[in-house]
Amino acid sequence: MKRLWLIFSQTATVLLAAYFVVATLKPQWLGHTPGAGSSVALVQADNNSAEAPPGSLRVAAQKASAAVVSINTSKNTRRNSKPNDPWFKFFYGDQGNEPQGGLGSGVIVSSSGYILTNNHVIEDADEIEVVLNDSRHTSAKVIGTDPDSDLAVLKINLDKLPTIVLGNSDTAQVGDHVLAIGNPFGVGQTVTGGIISALGRNQLDINTFENFIQTDAAINPGNSGGALVDSNGNLLGINTAIYSRSGGSMGIGFAIPISTARQVLDSLIKDGHVTRGWIGVEPNDLSPELAETFAVKSKDGVIITGVLRNGPAAKAGIRPGDVILRIGDQTVADVRQLLNVVSSLKPGNAVHFTIARKEQQLDIEVTPGTRPRPKAQ
């Protein structure tokens, strides 16, 4: 019995050794493919990598990027009427006849081909070319511009256009994750990330009407007119300006909220221009010096230092030295707020103004007119 068991064990050992040698050196004899086990692992790894890792904003970037376009502009130089005049060259230099180019970004907001961008991106351009993320390109037509808000609307005629979903900038909060998408320095579409750093930024002397979203997402030259989107890929604002000492991003960028841009967009598409209220006054923030000059007792509100003759405010009885405290139910704290509230008034509809005049408080009914279009610079 022991002998039989010894023969069996030796035979099994030899067979296992032979199987190991064949499986190692000639696996095809056994019907195996080299690396077959590893290929399964590789396929599984690829499938798993399709899922965004925790904290990734990949889905938001992919959702919004298709609707962000690059805008190339060209401006024909004015011919020099005195090409050989040495004095002209001394003061103005050699002015060639090569077209001047510009670069910016835009956002497709409608399948009809409407694009929202900054006014300064396309201002004075003779030709505008739009390049889509899928490499299609076409010329664009200007539907309307609004220099006061630095917004403009273009239109292109292409089929199957991707569009962005408009978000709600009124619900945005400091600390929310955002992405800035555009074409900085002409290097191609770029996505940068950050958070909302502040809301309601104004008094920056960038636009007439300011209510900016501030972000630390990198915004550089060429990003103007591009998209600021939330973590779901919805449009929160139009990237407009940066604070910079070098020309590059320093972590302080500004975007026009979509709540403002939507109103401008609708007006430009419907009328070709934006209609705003206007009362014809020269307002100033109330300072101790101005209060003393006009003998004003009020410490709040906006003081009027000038009134346009025959303007809406003059006709209503507002005088220099009056302090506007409220317009309707809205309290007025500074000049920017006064401009924003008055601009939102409907021309021709009377509104109650609460003012302080020396030691009195008065209610005056003002019928706003239409704000004049800004003169071209």
Percentage of residues in strands: 25-35%
Give me the CATH architecture of the largest domain, please. Beta Barrel
Distance between the termini: 112 Å
* Computed CA radius of gyration, to the nearest angstrom: 33 Å
Low-pLDDT segments, ≥5 res: 34-49
**For this structure, what is the CATH class of the largest domain?**
Mainly Beta
Give average pLDDT, whole number.
82
Global geometry: elongated
Number of self-contained structural domains: 4
**SS element count, helices:** 9
Portion of residues in helices? 10-25%
Order of helices and strands: HHHEHEEHEEEEEEEEEEHEEHEHEEHEEE
Number of strands: 21
CATH fold topology of the largest domain: Thrombin, subunit H
CATH superfamily of the largest domain: Trypsin-like serine proteases
Describe this structure in words.
This protein has 377 residues and is of the alpha+beta class. It has 4 domains: 1-31; 66-155, Thrombin, subunit H, CATH 2.40.10; 169-271, Trypsin-like serine proteases (Thrombin, subunit H); 277-370, PDZ domain (Pdz3 Domain). It has helices spanning 2-25, 36-49, 58-65, 86-92, 119-122, 258-271, 288-293, 312-316, 335-343, and strands spanning 68-75, 100-108, 114-118, 127-131, 137-139, 141-146, 151-155, 177-182, 190-201, 212-215, 227-230, 235-242, 253-257, 277-278, 281-285, 302-307, 323-327, 330-331, 351-357, 360-366, 369-370. It has a 7-stranded antiparallel β-sheet. A 6-stranded antiparallel barrel has the order 8-9-10-13-12-11. Strands 15, 16, 17, 18, 19 and 20 form a 6-stranded antiparallel β-sheet that branches. A hairpin with a 5-residue loop joins strand 4 and strand 5 (137-139). The longest helix is centred in the N-terminal third of the chain and has 24 residues, at 2-25. The chain is elongated and about 125 Å long. The N and C termini lie far apart (112 Å).
